[in-house]
């Protein structure tokens, strides 16, 4: 993948990821992954396998979230995807949660993610 093409594909994927999370839409999130994709939610978690498993996990997690705001920036491009820094905030009941972390995204030629890893830090406070 050429670096300009790779940057465009990763940017498009990250924008779709942002819309899926801000819209609390697990179906849109699952549509970003290949049917046999792996998704590791942190360094110690066994990766989830398959877009349906990813959709189910997203549905569980986002069911309690509101007022989601997400942003990202690409840090680097590799042959099959890239690395991005991301940040997000949302409310869960009367608690505000802020996350900041790193995504490692492997994309197929058709722009779907085949392997996804994320690491993040979390800060909580009372929702305003």
Describe this structure in words.
The longest helix is centred in the first third of the chain and has 20 residues, at about 5-20. This protein is about 30% helix and about 50% strand. The protein is α+β, with helices and mostly antiparallel strands and about 130 residues long. The protein has a single domain (about 5-125), classed as Nuclear Transport Factor 2, Chain: A, CATH 3.10.450. The radius of gyration is 14 Å and the shape is globular. The protein has a six-stranded mixed β-sheet, covered by helices on one side. The model has no long low-confidence stretch (mean pLDDT about 95).
Question: Descriptors for this entry?
Answer:
128 residues, Nuclear Transport Factor 2, Chain: A, six-stranded mixed sheet, 3 helices, 6 strands, 29% helix
Structure, briefly:
The protein is α+β, with helices and mostly antiparallel strands. Helix content is 29%, strand content 49%. It has one domain (3-126): Roll (Nuclear Transport Factor 2, Chain: A), CATH 3.10.450.50.
Which structural class do the helices and strands define? alpha+beta
- Tally of structural domains: 1
CATH architecture: Roll
Mean pLDDT: 93
End-to-end separation in angstroms reads 44 Å
The CATH first-level class comes to Alpha Beta
Q: In order across it, which strands form the biggest sheet?
A: 2-1-6-5-4-3
| Contiguous runs where pLDDT drops below 50 for at least 5 residues | none
CATH topology: the name is Nuclear Transport Factor 2, Chain: A
Major β-sheet profile: 6 strands, mixed
Radius of gyration: 14 Å
Which word captures the global form? globular
How much helicity do the residues have? 25-40%
Q: Element order, helices and strands? A: HHEEHEEEE
Number of strands: 6
């Amino acid at each position: 993948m050429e670096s300009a093409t790779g940057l465009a594909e990763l940017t498009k994927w990250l924008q779709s990821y942002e819309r899926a999370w801000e819209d609390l839409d697990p179906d849109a999130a699952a549509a970003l992954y290949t049917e046999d994709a792996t998704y590791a939610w942190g360094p110690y978690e066994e990766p989830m396998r398959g877009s349906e498993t990813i959709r189910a996990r997203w549905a569980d997690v986002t069911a309690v979230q509101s007022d989601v705001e997400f942003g990202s920036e690409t840090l680097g491009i590799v042959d099959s995807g890239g690395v991005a820094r991301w940040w997000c905030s949302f409310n869960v009941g009367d608690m505000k949660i802020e996350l900041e972390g790193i995504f490692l995204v492997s994309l197929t030629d058709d722009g779907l993610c085949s392997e996804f890893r994320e690491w993040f830090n979390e800060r909580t406070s009372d929702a305003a």
